[in-house]
Specification:
FAD/NAD(P)-binding domain; Enolase-like, domain 1; 4 domains; 10 helices; 18 strands
């Protein structure tokens, strides 16, 4: 074996991977996506709306197992079923044969192409060969320096940081990598800055398949307020500690995400009835139609940490992307950004 993938098997990690997959679509009828994480759900939906019979294979007991609980995973599975996509959980792909993709539960899935969105690992070969301590990622201190050599820094997927309970953690999201890059840049410029962790916001926004996860709702201690409506295909969960939202999950309806993110970022102390009112939609706050009324200091792009005021200061979407990076991450903030731009006051004497 020379390490190359079978022609029917496609990785999904680079622009070249995407181009190769697009080239294969015209002759394909059936597809299997291996991995039920955020990336896997995006790929599955994209393939199904292009007319392919699509199936998802997830090794965990439910979809998005790293971000959400079983009730939310079940709602997502029903949403995919509505798009004609079958989900196999608790199963792993074993091998590809002439008959199809063989799973460890005995099923063989007839398919023309397989897309791998699971099993990604940080590229740490250089660090290992250099003798640095590497577990899942390069082990770093609170200044993102290798624990073996303070001249070497690691950020993003390749950096393994310590959690308060002593466990190692790597991140696969864009916002922490940008925040870590800023810490390293400040350190190299002579400032004494440390990495204290990131308030992660994960988003998947697609028709009939919308998800937002604030923090780590499945591993964060606190009081849980949870509402599931399988008929409407929605699931909402808040983790509240001392009246403050410390984590949240929204599936199927993101109309409350603006207000929830605002409370989450600001550490707003809520009254006893407010968490339930937020989930049921009876508390006042931002909706998709209300982005224009958001205060300037409210964050609208979690990936790049961009506020409503920073968007209002721009004259076009191009200027927003070039100067703030908003909409260039997961893209979930695009509707709010466009609305903020559309309601921006017209200035006299605008430069031509």
């Amino acid at each position: 074996m020379d390490g190359t993938l079978h022609p029917q098997v496609h990785a999904f990690r680079s622009l070249d991977d995407c181009r190769r997959l697009l080239d294969a679509l015209p002759t394909a009828r059936r597809a299997v996506v291996v991995g039920g994480g955020l990336l896997g759900l995006q790929v599955a939906r994209a393939l199904s709306v292009r007319g392919l019979v699509t199936e998802v294979v997830e090794g965990g007991e439910h979809l998005l197992r790293s971000q959400v609980g079983a009730p939310a995973g079940a709602v997502l599975a029903r949403g995919l079923a509505g798009l004609g996509t079958t989900v196999y959980t608790g199963a792993r792909a074993v091998r590809l044969t002439d008959a199809g993709l063989v799973l460890d539960n005995g099923y063989t899935l007839d398919t023309d192409l397989v897309v791998l969105t699971a099993g990604g690992r940080p590229s740490t070969a250089v660090a290992r060969r250099s003798g640095l301590t590497v577990r899942r990622g390069v082990v770093v201190d609170d200044r993102l320096r290798s624990v073996d050599d303070p001249r070497i820094h690691a950020i993003g997927d390749c950096a393994e940081t310590r959690t308060p309970d002593g466990d190692g953690r790597t991140t696969g999201f864009v916002p922490p990598a940008w925040e870590q890059a800023a810490v390293v840049a400040a350190h190299l410029a002579g400032e004494d800055r440390t990495w204290t962790g990131s308030r992660t916001v994960a988003r998947l926004r697609a028709t009939d398949l919308e998800v937002a996860v604030l923090g780590d709702p499945e591993r964060t201690d606190g009081q849980v307020v949870e509402v599931t409506n399988p008929v409407l295909g929605t699931h909402r969960k808040l983790v509240v500690r001392d009246g403050v939202v410390v984590a949240a999950t929204l599936v199927g309806d993101l109309s409350r995400i603006g207000l929830l993110t605002q409370h989450y970022d600001r550490g707003t102390v809520l009254g006893p009835d407010e968490p339930g009112a937020l989930l049921l939609g009876t508390a006042g706050g931002s909706t998709p139609a209300g982005a224009a009324t958001l205060p300037d200091d409210v964050e609208v792009c979690a990936c790049a940490g961009v506020s409503a005021g920073a968007v209002r200061a721009c004259r076009s979407l191009l200027e927003v992307t070039e100067t703030t990076r908003a909409t260039t991450g997961c893209g979930g903030c695009a509707p709010a950004v466009r609305q903020l731009l559309s309601t921006r006051p017209t200035l006299e004497g605008t430069r031509s």
